[in-house]
Amino acid sequence: MMSLSFKLENKSDFVTKTDKMLHLTAAKLRLNSIGYNNTKEIINAWAGCYSLRRYEIISGNFKLDDYSVLRNFNGVNELIFRDFRTINKNFNDLQSKLPTFLKKFKSVFNDYRSLVEEDKLLTDEIIVTFRETVDINDRSVFLAFYALPLILRQNFVYKGAKRTKLPLLMCRQSYITILATEATLSEKLAERRKFAIEYKTTIQPFIFAVGAINTSIESFFVAYDDILFKCQSAVEAIDLHFKIHEAFHLEYAAECEMVLKFIQIYFYGIHYDGQRDSSSVAALITDLDRL
Asked: What is the per-residue pLDDT across 265-282, written as a single tens digit (0 to 9) for each?
């Protein structure tokens, strides 16, 4: 299985005692023996082995194959949301700030329009959608967040000591990739994984949006390793995509790091000790706050 890029953290805060480890291991084994239609028992067993799972993740020993519910349980998104809430006791809810963000987005778009207008189709759709009072729906949410990699451009990344210029398309697809049909989801994910293996890099979680900008986006999926998590809305996809990073202790993709930092700080109100500041993120938040 292709590896992902994980953040470093002190392991000493997690499971060490043998008796507790045995108890948590039993909970993990029970989790994989429960029928996938037994939602309540799965949720309880998932919570019961949280400390073990977290230790595995932080120590680099976590294996997706050890947790079959991630691939087979229809309520898997809720399991990830629960882990996020366990890790972050105090955070803002994405939807609480979304109305304000969308209301201000038109003004922000006008301020940053020179960065977006090279994508004429996206620009035209934003102008039409945000012309008057904006409803919170899949279209408005998708267009606003799909524009973020243009507004917060990740022009360069560092590969070791070498600074590499990034194509804009790579930055956008590292956050949201648009597909015409669900039929090609597995194929496109396999292609991305093959490319990453060939070039000895990683694929961090990203969003698949199925449809077309100028008509409608019909469905959303979040890709994590070789798993596709189906989401019921653009909001759920954006929320799940961010929270997967925390739940599985993953680094942000370098290609869209500023987009994720903006979402982390502006929407969730989360600040990490030692995280490098971004002047572009700070400027966008300042521009939003002054409107």
From this structure: 999 999 998 898 899 999
- Compute φ and ψ for 261, nearest 5 degrees: -65, -40
The whole-angstrom separation of Cα 98 and Cα 20 is 41
**Residue 177: Cβ within 10 Å count:** 19
Residue located via tokens 């960065």:
115
Is 2 inside any structural domain? no
| pLDDT at site 189 | 94
Whether 99 and 25 map to the same domain: the answer is no
Place of tokens 């207008």: 117
Do 119 and 153 touch, CB atoms closer than 8 A? no
100 and 191 share a domain?
Answer: yes
Q: 26 vs 13, 50, 83, 186, CA distance in Å?
A: 21, 12, 19, 33
Q: Is residue 138 part of a domain?
A: yes
Q: Where are the beta strands (DSSP E) in 191-226?
A: 206-211, 217-224
Q: Which bin fits 87, alpha (ψ -120 to 50), beta or left (φ > 0)? A: alpha
Element (H, E) at 244: helix 234-247
Amino acid at 34: I
Could you give the CA distance from residue 44 to residue 73 in angstroms, rounded to a whole number?
Answer: 14
For 208, phi then psi, to 5°, come to -100, 125
pLDDT (0 to 100) of residue 223:
97
C-alpha triplet 254, 259, 261: angle, nearest 5°: 85
- Give the β-pairing of 227-231 and 217-224: antiparallel
CA 205, 156, 273 angle in degrees (round to 5)? 60
Comparison of pLDDT for 150 and 169, the residue scoring more: 150
Structural domain containing residue 154: 94-290
User: Torsions phi, psi of 280, nearest 5?
Assistant: -70, -40
Identify whether residues 153 and 18 lie together within a single domain: no
Q: Are residues 114 and 253 in the same domain?
A: yes
